[in-house]
Design brief:
This protein is about 30% helix and about 20% strand. With about 180 residues, it is an alpha/beta fold. Helix 1 packs across helix 5.
């Protein structure tokens, strides 16, 4: 089970791309609302009904825990003490933790990036507390996977799928990700 945490102000593409791609790869995903209401509104005014509330997310049943970026979504994630406790426990148990765009700053604030390589949206590097920032689209260091932003969301989703033991090649091909669309 993969939990994708949604807080008001989340980046819609980063969240829903991950959910969609992982489900296409046959991975069970649960969107979990942070903030006490199942209806969560993204940074661009798109409202989503989450599958469950944060309090219903069970670290023992989770294989991976994912934070989409967006502002103020990442700030709202960072302000939640229950999410902090859940992610710290998941990290202590070696569970996969992913964050994209502004959300890697949450991992830094929660003390989960010490001595690791990580990436983020440009300008947030100083908030990757304890990490060695990189500019790669996706950085995997142990059980922590980080990514830069909207344009890297598919690569992030596929990296998560691979880390969970799925082979996303058939999904990539079916979605035309392996086609060359450089000319418009």
């Amino acid at each position: 089970m993969v939990y994708v945490f949604l807080a008001n102000g989340f980046e819609e593409i980063e969240a829903l791309c991950v959910v969609d791609f992982l489900r296409r790869c046959g991975i069970e995903v649960c969107t979990a609302a942070v903030g006490g209401e199942k209806v969560v509104t993204g940074a661009h005014g798109i409202s989503v009904v989450a599958d469950c509330l944060l309090d219903e997310a069970n670290e023992a049943h989770g294989d991976a825990f994912v934070l989409p970026g967006g502002l103020p979504g990442a700030d709202n994630l960072q302000a939640d003490a229950s999410l902090k406790a859940l992610l710290q426990s998941a990290a202590a148990h070696g569970k996969i933790i992913g964050a994209i765009c502004a959300a890697p700053k949450v991992l830094g604030a929660f003390g989960l990036l010490q001595g690791r390589r990580a990436t983020c949206y440009p300008g947030f590097e100083e908030e990757l507390i304890g990490a060695q920032p990189e500019k790669a689209p996706v950085v995997r260091d142990g059980h922590i996977i980080t990514s830069r932003g909207v344009a890297t969301a598919p690569a992030f989703a596929f990296a998560l799928a691979e880390s969970l033991g799925a082979d996303p090649r058939k999904v990539r091909t079916g979605m035309l990700f392996d086609e060359d669309y450089t000319t418009f």
